[in-house]
Amino acid sequence: MKWNDDYLVAYVQSFDINEEELREHCQSHLPPHMIPSIFIILDKLPLNANGK
Fold this sequence. Notes:
The protein has one helix spanning 19-29; strands at 9-13, 38-42. By secondary structure, it is an alpha+beta fold.
């Protein structure tokens, strides 16, 4: 990937899913231009002081 290029990034909270499963699911439900280029899988999504 080049710096300054545009990418769609998906942040996902999960313990039991991998990038391949996410990509396959997206490919079967979304048009190609809506499929994220990058999946970032987190154990827990960060929250602010208000819990949002």
